[in-house]
Fold this sequence. Notes:
The chain has 366 residues and is of the alpha+beta class. It contains 11 helices and 16 strands. The protein has a domain at 4-206: CV3147-like fold (3-Layer(aba) Sandwich). It has helices at 7-20, 28-42, 68-73, 80-92, 111-119, 140-143, 170-183, 197-203, 208-225, 229-236, 335-341, and strands at residues 4-5, 45-48, 58-66, 98-101, 123-127, 152-155, 161-164, 187-196, 205-206, 240-255, 258-267, 273-279, 281-287, 290-294, 298-303, 320-326. It is globular and about 60 Å long.
Amino acid sequence: MLSQITLEDIHPIGIGAGILGTGGGGNPYLGGLHLASIIREMGPQRIIDPFDLTDDALCCVVGSIGAPTVSIEKLPEGTEMSRALSLLEEHIGRRFDAVAIAEIGGANSMQPLIGGLQAGIPTVDSDSMGRAYPEIQMSSFLFDSSASAAPLAMVDAADNAAVVPGASSDKWAETIARNIAVSMGARAGLAGTIMSGAQVKAAGVHYTLSLAHHLGCQVLEAQRQKSDVPEVVASVLDGQVIFHGKISDVDRRVSKGFARGGVRIDSFSGADKLEIEFQNEFLIAFINGEVAVTTPDLICIVTEEEGEPVTTELLRYGTRVAVIAVPAPPQLKTGVALEVVGPAAFGYDVAFRPLPGGVIGLAPGR
């Protein structure tokens, strides 16, 4: 597994996290530029194995909240993560020992690296999804845990800041935070979900930063070898390529702090079509009108030739793509988890049929 993040690690992590993000998590290229500027200034960021945390260590998650489409036009000031951390520390009266990753997807895989480096604390190689999700309560740290999303702290690119000291439920914490994020221009830095080291070890989806790095390295090597890159991605993630085609229609809008809509992809022969609906992330895929994949399994879109991730904000008419279905980590497939991240949680009256296998959350080499 990774022990530190250097400038050379940013590009492969951006590719891998962009794919694992299932369309969401923020633009990995812009996130990589931000992280690179911080590493040039402060040096590499230290990464720790989740099982090296002491049980009484104090951790929280940090990341951006808002609509991915907004992040392209509304760039960060640069210190949102560390300011949110400091604000939350001031509220609870104690320093954090480490930061965990809220979601491994896209730029949000890099925000805990930026925040940890600026705050002088390590980042844990563990996240709460093994992918990206649009809402705070959609977190393995919260499914079967005494941890809660609130208290949380939020800041924007200006001098606006807010602390939510408590909420009646994690879903209400999301509702409150989302409304604050909308008032901050649909993009804000957030620190929350305070946990002990024992809770991180028990509930996290571990080694996903290392997985994103490994996946990105394999993509870059496949590009050099001129291999079938989408097939390489599917092999690394124990998934399968389910469709090849060209984007023929995109419906995308920002609504209530989310990027919502759908995309249609026509097969190269024109005989078949695949339609995907998204709320920041790709949630459900239909092939010729029949359900093919649903959340929590991952629906990943990559470019046909290079295997580069195509996020919701980068969906463009005419792009040639491959669509890959990837098994979700086991933490997302329990009965409790499916109530929060299964198809019904997003309003789809379909049964979740899990894809077989899976590697997300496994220790490297297993």
